[in-house]
Amino acid sequence: MDNSKPLIIAGRDDGFGERMRALLNALYISKKFGFKFGFVWRDINNIQNLLDGKVLIPWANLPTREYLFDQDFIKSYYRQDIEFAYETPVLWSLYRQSIKNILKKPYEKEWGWYSTQGDLSEYFTDVDEGEYRTELVSCWKQIDFSSHVKKIFEKAHSKFLDIGKFVAIHIRTGEVIHDEFYRNILYHCRYKIFPYPFALEIALKEIKKGHRVIFFGDDLNLIQNLKEYCSFNKQAQENIFSIDDIIAFEQLDNGYDRLLFELVLMSKSEYIFGSGTTGFSRCASWIENKIFINIFDHLSLIEQYEIILKYIDIENIDDLYRSCNYFFLFLLSEQLNLNFDIKLRYLSKSLRYDSGSLNSEVFYINLLLQNEKFKEADDRLEQVICKNKKKFFDLLLGYGQNPTFPYDIYMNYYFKDFDQYSNIFYVACRIFSEFNIPESRVNTYYPNFHPIIFDQFKMFIFKDLPKSDQEIGAVKKIRNHLAYKLGVAAIKNSKSLWGYIRMPYVLSYIRDMHKESQNKMDKKSISLEYYSDYESALKEKEGFVYKLGQIIIKAHKNWHKGGYIMLWFEVKKLKKEFKKGK
Fold it and tell me: What Gene3D superfamilies is this protein classified in (predicted)?
């Protein structure tokens, strides 16, 4: 590898739009600063579209490297020796700094930098938007596509000449609605979706201005249904098209060709309406320097709320879409400070149309907790845990997906006497436990949240436990040993069912607090034998409580060798010894 110049690598591994935006940015940086350009392109196979091909999935229609690019382009710039970068910082270390800092060592990687897919004029403080967008058009033309792909681009351009001027509305839904995993992380993906009521409102307004409108999107049934809804209006009949109306007359061999045709045709529009985090329609706006309108910025909160209410119950809409839009109404009602009953009604309707939505369930329970309806929340949790325990905690605690829940989703489980509600208490313990693991996904995502959870647990769970006594005296010092503290806690919590349930969390907490207190203590302390109650202290040390604590410490140290399995037998043996008076 030539190390004379740093590399700028386009290495995204998600959908086509985000990959191509990263590639365009890499070309821009390469041209501007003389970096060596390279790209990574992992082909994804064996992914199927949904609903008999009517819902298009990004990875099912992602062109392969050989299909998309010319062989000379691949030979010159494809890097087999570099991994894709979907979860790498991709320039985050320079966010809101000067773009010139990429010239300074150390680079993000030994060889240079991964390219971001974000808008560099927003990413850096000194990238001129006009110059940047003009150069992106030039960068697109610089890419050597395969001869077949070039023919698809020519077809799209020819079709544009037939159609004339139009406005593009990109209705991004697809797998976010129709795949259970994505539905359950709807809050995380909410700005990727283009709500269908917005599409109707914008389309009808645009034709009143005398514009043609083309609906682009990944759910072909939805697009057709929206077009048919608009057919009551003669002007709409003549000026609103679905992408299928146009593609039906073209010879497109597969999903790759359809995706490429749509991208280029969309880029010919006057301007593009898209969702907040869509990569595909943003890419289309880049390659011809067209205006991209983020629908969530374009419409005020009250406009969004009123438009969804206006169109949410139109006919021939899949229940999963209604569920999603009722969840949006809930989020908007939160932002607009509407009352509890309205919020609860929207979440109830979201669950009516998608009874398996754990996303809506999490917010439903949180709404009850926020409004101190603890018994209702506890009963609701019992049902959810009974039916979907693993999926519920996977979602809540972020396994496999970075969580983006508001922090109060977690905090609301901690309130006065929350341990009186068994299911709420159980969830609170699970939250505490997960935040107590430094490498956990949820702890990584909320790096400053652990001490807050820790304090909440300390305040409420341990309110009835004996506090550490720091008074001077041999007996007092023995009772401040970790073994004694653990023994007391174990005995106290063995007297009730909930005590048994919370015991692991209690013991974990005591270990952590003891370690923290020991670090703060003066190491030069007086030996036990100098105290007048030395003999009593020795008896305490030989007592059942202290010995029990020692067994617990031993079990913890040997957990990988089955220490906790042996703990039950050791405790039984200890009790037997003390009953016999040793």
Answer: 3.40.50.11350
DSSP notation for 301-313: HHHHHHHHHHHTT
Encoded tokens for 51: 């609903």
Residue with tokens 């693993």: 390
**What separation in angstroms does the CA of 49 have from each of 55, 66, 284, 545?**
6, 21, 22, 63
* CA gap 185, 402 in Å, rounded: 10
Peptide bond into 197 cis (omega under 30): no
Which residue is associated with the tokens 């009551």?
232
pLDDT in tens, 47-65: 999 999 899 999 999 999 9
Alpha helices in 103-146 (DSSP H): 120-123, 129-142
pLDDT at 1 over 50: no
The fourth-level CATH superfamily of domain 147-299 is: Glycogen Phosphorylase B; (3.40.50.2000)
Mean of pLDDT values over 522-534: 59
Q: Where are the domains of the chain?
A: 7-128, 147-299, 474-579
Distance from C-alpha of 545 to C-alpha of 130, rounded to nearest angstrom: 74
* Residue 26 CB burial class (10 angstroms; 0-12, 13-18, ≥19): buried
pLDDT of residue 236: 86
Sheet holding 291-294, edge to edge: 240-242, 213-217, 167-171, 271-274, 291-294
Q: How far apart are CA 113 and CA 8, in angstroms?
A: 5
**DSSP line for 15-77:** -HHHHHHHHHHHHHHHHHH-PEEEE------S---BTTTTB--GGGG---HHHHB-HHHHHHH
Provide the percentage of residues in the chain whose pLDDT is more than 90. Answer: 60
Residue 556 or residue 351, greater confidence = 351
pLDDT in tens, 219-274: 999 999 999 999 888 888 899 999 989 987 677 879 999 999 999 999 999 999 99
Query: Could you write out the three-class secondary structure of 460-471?
Result: HHCCCCCCCCCC
Least confident of 76-85, 350-359, 368-377, 563-572: 563-572
Kind of pairing between the strands at 167-171 and 112-114:
unpaired
